[in-house]
Design a protein that fits this description.
Largest sheet: 8 strands, mixed
Distance between the termini: 61 Å
Shape: globular
Strand content: 15-25%
Structural class: alpha+beta
Mean pLDDT: 83
CATH class of the largest domain: Alpha Beta
CATH topology of the largest domain: Heat Shock Protein 90
Length: 625
């Protein structure tokens, strides 16, 4: 007979603000992660503090922000008005406390619910806040949200606020800051706040032309079909052009917040662009032909924005202000006037845009038959898709806290697939098995995605045929052996994604799985090593009677061991496509004809590590760094 579960007064618990944030951090910052993805928790904490500095700047106070990250310690100093000295402690430790509830003090700000800095405080081992106002200063130091010290002191420093913190490594396990992710965040702040100077680790970030500068940095101007169209209004700014890439690329912002998942403003922009272009050319083009290969940025400012989560990555607002126009109507009216005027005044750009639309229309019609047959085959295969071992939760399940952990491992061969399949978490980890080396698709058209069965099934497994809106897995992980064949397969898959789905890479969804090369153990302890140097350190640490195993392939690692490398301790190397990088040039360099330039690069970047156990050389070629 089962034991009766008692539900009484003792079952009801009340948590203070600190305990609640630490118990349910996902409610406040989305996923945790370890810094290998741009939306991991440590970057959300960073953003929450910067947002407060930006809101001060937007209100006209403070033109400079100083930022330092050193050995995981973050320091952020603005030169705004400074937190009122009598409320410094409350502003960083009392939920629903802040200046942004008073719409007179902060108009169209990012943070409105008084949670951001409290979350950073509660999730940090060390948190310091210091406000400077008119010769006086208030200092407070916390540990995991608990106040350790407070002090009132005289100060000659300029007005403003200083925040320093070290994220809690018991929450963000094995975390690290990746410089490219931090710099991209800072650049976005600079682009959205023309005239603001942000100093980060002694580097200056500054933009004069807003979203025009953003697009110039995020695309290769040589590949654009026409000069960037840049339009600005009172609460809206838009910039866009077309090139020759596949898919659609959008950078969207609300009140300076990067809404990576779009929202009502992005949907409104897409619809307004299509309608305005149709009206201008007086032709009912297919919407996909108008938007194909677009690279666009849109920023709007909304009073009291409504986001779909605390992380503010998707706008839910339908109104520009409590009593104003709708988001949809405001954006359409803006484009109908300003874009229509621009196209009438710039005939050459209008002609080039028309040619790009007609080219997209021709390509779509040519591929229609192939696409239909391929999709029919894929639907039949999906019923019993032997290549895909799916999981229960997908990235599209917006109300599930595991959506950010959803992962598709792309593996080579049955042995590696079998190990991962047996050791994975079936709730949110899926496996797609390749039968061997995939086709080298460099220089081919997207037609090959439909004609090649493996590529077509992979496309359908991810559900990215038309856009990323239905992407089923947040993380796509290439899991290949650490040998020459494994590196070749990795290159072929990178070529596939970069050529046909570049926005998947640019949005930080693609990773390389890092698995151990060696197992070093004695009777008491086992250490897994990812390099020759780590192996030598492990040998010295374990000292006597050490057994060393060299893993030559993923299939050699038992499922029980594999579980250790794909759980919370997973090591992932993000595939980061520099904002200024040209995909065409990258693919031509690595996948085109062998050239003296590429040979010199390989020779100069070859790493030879001596395996003292086997007296053999382990050769690694550093590529895509």
């Amino acid at each position: 007979m089962s034991k009766e579960i008692i539900y009484d007064e003792e079952s009801i618990k009340s948590l203070d603000w600190r305990e609640h944030i630490r118990l349910r951090p996902g409610m406040y910052i989305g996923k945790l992660g370890n810094g290998s993805a741009s939306d991991d928790g440590i970057y959300v904490l960073f953003k929450e503090i910067i947002d407060n500095c930006i809101d001060e700047h937007v209100m006209g106070f403070g033109k400079v922000i100083d930022i330092k990250i050193d050995d995981n310690k973050v320091s952020i100093r603005d030169y705004g008005r400074g937190i009122p000295l009598g409320k410094v402690i409350e502003c960083v430790s009392k939920i629903n406390t802040g200046g942004k509830y008073d719409s007179k003090a902060f108009q169209k700000s990012v943070g409105l619910n008084g949670v951001g800095s409290k979350a950073v405080n509660a999730l940090s081992n060390y948190f310091k806040v210091q406000s400077f106002r008119d010769g006086k200063s208030k200092l407070a130091i916390f540990e995991k949200g608990d106040l350790l010290k407070e002090e009132d002191i005289e100060s000659s420093e300029s007005n403003g606020t200083l925040i320093e913190y070290i994220a809690d490594d018991s929450v963000f396990k094995h975390f690290r800051y990746i410089n490219e992710f931090v710099e991209n965040q800072i650049w976005n702040y600079a682009f959205l706040n023309s005239g603001l100077i942000i100093n980060f680790n002694n580097n200056k970030f500054f933009s004069k032309n807003g979203l025009l500068d953003l697009l110039k940095r995020n695309c290769n101007e040589e590949e654009l079909r026409y000069p960037i169209i840049h339009l600005k209004g009172e609460d809206i700014e838009v910039a866009f052009s077309h090139d020759n890439h596949y898919g659609e690329i959008y950078h969207t912002f609300v009140n300076g917040q990067n809404t990576t998942q779009g929202g009502t403003h992005l949907q409104a922009f897409k619809e307004a662009l299509v309608k305005t272009v149709r009206d201008f050319y007086k032709k009912d083009f297919d919407s996909s032909d108008i938007r194909s290969s677009i690279n666009a940025a849109i920023s709007i400012r909304v009073q009291e924005p409504v986001f779909e989560s605390q992380t503010k990555t998707k706008l839910g607002s339908t109104e520009m202000s409590p009593n104003g126009a709708t988001v949809k109507g405001y954006i359409y009216d803006f484009l109908r006037k300003h874009l229509d005027d621009f196209l009438h005044k710039n005939n050459s750009i209008a002609d080039t845009l028309l040619k790009r639309i007609l080219q997209s229309e021709k390509e779509r019609k040519e591929m229609a038959g192939v696409r239909k047959l391929a999709n029919e085959r894929a639907k039949k295969a999906n019923i019993h898709n032997k290549k895909l071992r799916d999981c229960r939760v997908h990235f599209t399940h917006t109300n599930n806290e595991n959506r950010y952990n959803t992962t598709l491992f792309i593996t080579e061969g049955d042995s590696a697939s079998g190990s991962i399949t047996k050791s994975r978490n079936v709730d949110y980890q899926a496996v797609f098995s390749l039968r061997g080396k995939p086709l080298n698709c460099y220089g081919l058209t997207k037609k090959v995605v439909y004609e090649n069965e493996e590529f077509n099934l992979l496309q359908h497994a991810l559900d990215i045929e038309d856009s990323l809106e239905n992407l089923r897995y947040n993380n796509i992980v290439i899991a290949t052996d650490a040998d020459v064949d494994g590196m070749h397969i990795r290159l072929l898959l990178l070529t596939f994604f970069l050529q046909f789905f570049p926005d998947l890479v640019r949005n930080g969804h693609l990773y390389i799985l890092d698995t151990p090369l060696f197992r070093v153990r004695n009777k008491q302890k086992t250490i897994y090593c990812y390099s020759e140097s780590e192996k030598q350190s492990a040998i010295k640490k374990l000292k006597d009677k050490v057994e060393i195993t060299r893993f030559k392939g993923l299939g050699e690692i038992s499922p029980d061991e594999f579980a250790l490398f794909i759980d919370e301790n997973i090591r992932l190397e993000p595939v980061i496509l520099g904002q200024e990088m040209s995909i065409d040039k990258i693919l031509e360099y690595y996948m085109g004809k062998n050239t003296p330039e590429r040979q010199d690069f390989i020779i100069n970047n070859l790493i030879v590590e001596i395996d003292t156990e086997n007296e053999t050389n382990i050769v690694k070629e550093e590529i895509f760094q």
